[in-house]
Amino acid sequence: MTYATKASVAALLATVAGLVAGPAAGAAPARKAVPAAGPQAAKGAADQGAVAPGKPVTLRIYLTPKGGSDALAAAAAAVSDPSSPTHGRYLTPAQYEAAYRPTAESVVAVEAYARDGGLRVDGVEAHSRYITVTGTAAAVDATFGTGLHRFAAGGDSFDAPTHAATVTAAIAPRVLAVSGLSTRPRAMKPHATAPAAFVNGTPCSAYYGEKPASDQPPFQGRTLPYAPCGYVPAQLRSAYEGGTALNGSGVTVAITDAYASPTIESDANTYAARHGDQPFAAGQLTQSNPARFTQERLCDSLGWYGEETLDVEAVHGMAPGANVLYYGSPSCLDQDFGDTLARVVDDDKASVVSNSWGDLESNETPDGVAAYEQVFQQGVLQGISFLFSSGDNGDEVASSGVGQADYPTSDPYVTSVGGTSTGIGSTGALSFQTGWGTDKFTLASGAWTPAGFLYGAGGGFSSLFARPAYQQGTVPGNTTGRAVPDVAMDADPTTGMLVGETQKFPKGGNAYGEYRIGGTSLAAPLMAGMQALRNQRTGARGGLLNPTLYGAAKGTITDVSAPGPDAGNVRSDYANGVDPSGGMVYSVRTFDQDSSLGDGGAVTKGWDSITGIGVPSATYLTGG
């Protein structure tokens, strides 16, 4: 079984190598391209000319793992393949280091290569993943043949290469990637954000369909229900877990986001107590945060607090007995998230990692992919399961002008979690599941007026990664690329989860409040909670889940292939977001209309680009 990772890097290198021109191409016949930000990093920007030769530049030179990248990829594939004799034979971090840590010879050789090019070696990462070097732009150009220029776009300026990075053929086998050649920020975004303060408008339903919106105009000839007020953990457990006694005890789930909410533990405990659950026990929720956070303005640090709140409360709600270990990234920048995930695998305390963030594939660069993938492969070999939300902008055409998947959710070594619109009835049972994709209609002059596509589960086909073996025969054969997502859980904000968070209200300052929220940022931690229960039941780690999910027995995964009982729900909102003093705003939020994904925006039988192969059922927990 292969996951085509090497092919993906080769494709990226081919893209950037094709952009090498002029002196850099003709002057280095004995050089080889390496994964790095190249001319594509300056797309849409105006060239302002060459960077001053003496300008200081700091780079990371990532080192090839011992035995080579192909050997590491093959080992990760084998340990994940149910038909392999090494399936499930996971390594400890020490065993991984013994087998794959870059060699001391590589460190010495690459340091010497950097110094010979006029660069200063500043240090080696604790596990020898990379060497940090500093030098002038002229020295960087001489060492890597990149032709650094200054570019301007949208009022910002940055440096970027005009040629693909190369190194000598002799040193190339030791260099995995070069990072830092472009100073254009590569920022990840949370897949769930909330305003500074928000309160659900009323009326809303305690369970799906409780309150018909009979005081509002019919929609397409039918009276729709008012949207749920937000499902609480007891409802979600009842709907998904089938009454199991499993609670995640003995399992640790890691959550990565940027920054750290100062009120997360008190908020989560208040929320649990208000809804009949046990608060976190002493030491059950812990945090691993950096000494300082950076880039708060660029990244909107406060906006990440809502993401963390949702992730923590969703995991605890689904698996109340599991330990939750929160890792705060110093910022939303790509490199910081890569370092944060590296801390997760080096610590090796968690067997499941929930990640509700990402960015467009087109914004990723080869060095970023190489750095992430090395961490994912280490995690897979240690039995760690990475779950990533698939995104909240459907096919991304509206946001970027190009149909594409997000990254890292498109990586073959992670499980991509898409989204459903979900009905949970008065008894706590699932009443329906359909695709999350929302067209909005506003109320004007007594009629529902279309306002266009609002949001929906991300999905599609990767342009970075070839189709992995575990998707062959399941994903339609007339498409290419790694298909996104793999599975799905509830994500629609209309049928979302109620969360509790300390918010900054316009009157009265900071106070705890509750509100409904969704997005695949909800789906990923819900799935992480499910996986914690499965790991508790099996007594083992799950590693890369995808081969098991795609090969699961009938009944283990529920195919989502039909519309719901209603076209959508009526949503009532306070015009000012917090109270009725400013009046009410009413809208219809539809189901199963996800831009161009699926079959015209709707789910289909079998795998589809909204819900993947479907939603894990209670059988997934109890024996599937």
How would you explain this protein's 3D organization?
- With 624 residues, this protein is of the alpha+beta class.
- The chain has two domains: 5-64 and 102-184, no CATH class; 190-622, 3-Layer(aba) Sandwich (Rossmann fold).
- The chain is built from 16 helices and 30 strands.
- Strands 11, 12, 13, 14, 16, 18, 19 and 24 form an eight-stranded mixed beta sheet that branches.
- A hairpin with a 2-residue loop joins strand 6 and strand 7 (156-161).
- Helix 1 runs antiparallel to helix 12 (366-381), helix 3 (69-80) crosses helix 12 (366-381) and helix 10 (301-318) runs parallel beside helix 14 (520-538).
- It is globular.
- It starts with a helix and ends with a helix.
- Mean pLDDT is 94; it is low at 4-29.
- InterPro entries: Peptidase_S8/S53_dom, Peptidase_S8/S53_dom_sf, Peptidase_S8_Ser-AS, S53_propep, Sedolisin_dom, Tripeptidyl-peptidase_I.
- This is S53 family peptidase.
- Residues 1-27 form the signal peptide.
- It comes from Paraconexibacter antarcticus.
- It holds the Pfam family Pro-kuma_activ.
Question: What's the short version?
Answer:
By secondary structure, the protein is an alpha+beta fold. It is 26% helix and 26% strand.
